[in-house]
Specification:
Blueprint lengths: L1 H12 L4 H41 L10
């Protein structure tokens, strides 16, 4: 019985995997932030490209057509 109590206490006090779990959560948060940033920048760049294309379409020289 004493051996079982000792093993239970050792298992309860063991924190070897805690750091790995913390780092995994941190990596997940960083990955989510990076994905959100990339998607946000992509939407912004797409909007700017469409604005540029519309501007160029209205000011193209004679004989040239701007296609987007």
């Amino acid at each position: 019985m004493k051996k079982l109590m000792t093993m239970t206490r050792q298992f309860r006090d063991d924190d070897n995997g805690a750091a790995m779990v913390e780092y995994s959560i941190l990596i997940g948060i960083i990955a989510a932030a990076a994905i959100t940033a990339v998607l946000g920048i992509g939407v912004f760049v797409t909007g700017q490209f469409h604005n540029l294309c519309a501007t160029l379409s209205g000011h193209s020289p004679a004989g040239y057509t701007v296609t987007c």
